Amino acid sequence: EHEHNLRFDLYYQGHVFNDLGFLQRLENVLQQLCDGCEVLAELNLLLPGETPLSGRRKTLPQGISHVQQLFEQQVVRSPNAIAIVDDHGEMDYQSLNQSANQLAHFLQQQGITVGTRVGICLPRQRDAMIAILAVIKAGAAYVQKNYNSPEHCLLHIVCVADTSLLISQLM
Question: Fewest CB atoms within 10 Å of the CB: 13, 46, 118, 156?
C-alpha cells in the first residue's frame, strides 16, 4: 500500500549549514520531481517571488571595460565618502582603494595573475571587501569561502576550486 510514496529524510549540521533558502529550494525541486518532472533542465530552481537574473544584465559605461574601473571612478568622485561601515567603524573610498591596491600588489608579487583563482575566507566585514577588490585588481578571480565552515571543509573547497592562494587574514 506504500509502493507509490516517496520519503526523503535530510540530516545536516545546523550550526554549520544555516541557509534556509537552500533547504526551501531543495524542497521545491523534490516536489517538482514528485509531480512528474523528468527533465532536469526543466526544473524551476527559483523560489516564489524570485525572478531570474537573465535579461537584467547591465552593460558597463562607454570607456569602462572592468568593474574595478567603476570603483576607481567612485574613489575620484568622492574619496572621503563612507564606503564601508562595520564593527570596526567606517572606511572611506580612498582608504579602501589604498588598502586594496596594497594587497593587489602583494598578490601579484606572489604570482597571482589573470586567470588565477584566489580563495577568500574572511568574515563579511571590511577585510573581505578589501580582499575581493584586491583580487579583482590583480586580474584574478576570487572564490568566496564560508568563514564559519570547519577547517576540513575549507581544505576540500580549496582543492576542488583549484585556488592558488587562500586569504584568511589581513594584517
Answer: 13
58-94: string of b/e by CB count within 10 Å (b at 16+)? eeeeeeeeeebeebbeebeeeeeeebbeeeeeebbbe
- Cell numbers found for residue 67: 568593474
Per-residue pLDDT, averaged over 3-28, amounts to 72
Q: State the Cα–Cα distance between residues 127 and 168, nearest whole angstrom.
A: 9
C-alpha cell at 54: 537573465
Percent helix, strand, coil in the chain, to 5, is 40, 10, 50
Cα torsion 161, 162, 163, 168 to 10°: value is 60
Cell 586569504 identifies what position?
A: 167
**How would DSSP label each residue in 46-98?**
PPTT---STT-PPPPPTT--SHHHHHHHHHHH-TTSEEEEETTEEEEHHHHHH
Query: pLDDT tens, 37-87?
Result: 877 778 888 877 777 765 555 666 676 667 778 888 889 989 999 888 888
- Residue 21: all three cell numbers together: 533558502
pTM for this structure? 0.61
The three-class DSSP label of residue 14 is coil
Query: Which of these, 145, 140, 143, 142, lies nearest to 116 by C-alpha position?
Result: 140
